[in-house]
Design a protein that fits this description.
CATH class: Alpha Beta
CATH architecture: Alpha-Beta Barrel
Structural class: alpha/beta
Shape: globular
Number of strands: 8
Strand content: 15-25%
Oligomer: single chain
Order of helices and strands: EHEHEHEHEHEHEHEHH
Strand order of the largest sheet: 1-2-3-4-5-6-7-8
Length: 219
Amino acid sequence: MMNRNRMSPKPGINGLYAITPDCLDTVNLLHRTRLVLSGGARVLQYRNKLADAALRLKQATALRELTHEFSATFIVNDDAQLAARIDADGVHLGKSDDELITARDRLGNHKIIGISCYNHLSLAREAIAGGADYVAFGAFFPSKVKPDAVNADIELLLRARSEIAVPLVAIGGITVQNAAKLISSGADALAVISALFDAADIQASAQNFSKLFIQDSAS
């Protein structure tokens, strides 16, 4: 008899972590995302600050199916209710402790909750103590998506890696040219928007990012 209390392991947070751009054209968004996933992205976060609730549901549902096709982890940005509705793998939130508790109550212990910790190691400690499954730091480089984002440095990533066991995600202005240093300094995943979705060859860009993780594991 099946043990109904037994839970499957949570999906991993590692490798290329693609974040969708603000895009109202669902067909175009799905086309570009397919190329990103074909190039090896292991995690996809749905983020669309321009869409209304109906469009967000439509796009998130379609992207959930696409990530199933590629066996990629699917995360929803800032909306635990939407994540629960479409059975996403988890949600990514800002730094509020209340949000984390609410999201955990809504999603259950088997889902992933990631927390943005900006450039503060103390926020990461608090998030992990509260049950976060991964933490994100950044911006490590100037970001076109968030030009006013706080700056994080490599030293922060090194300190975090020395004391934090959960996956570390680096974000902010990351390109193929500057990514290797973040991986070698302890980042388990690189969150990327513009360098993927705005690339002339989206699939090739994703492949180039993915190769960096293979090279690092081999070294």
